[in-house]
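Table S2 (continued). Query chain:
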Amino acid sequence: MGKVRVAGFSMSLDGFGAGIEQSLNAPLGRRGPALFQWFFPARTFRAMTGPAGGY
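Corresponding output:
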């Protein structure tokens, strides 16, 4: 069995880390991206994914 290393993980205040029906094709689950809309423009996320800037 392989090991998985998680470099960054976020969770909502009510304990959700992904939406329902999580899969390899939808790693955040159905409606998962809506759960983390606040994070996508953040400086930390943008530094991890490439674009500069963020708040």
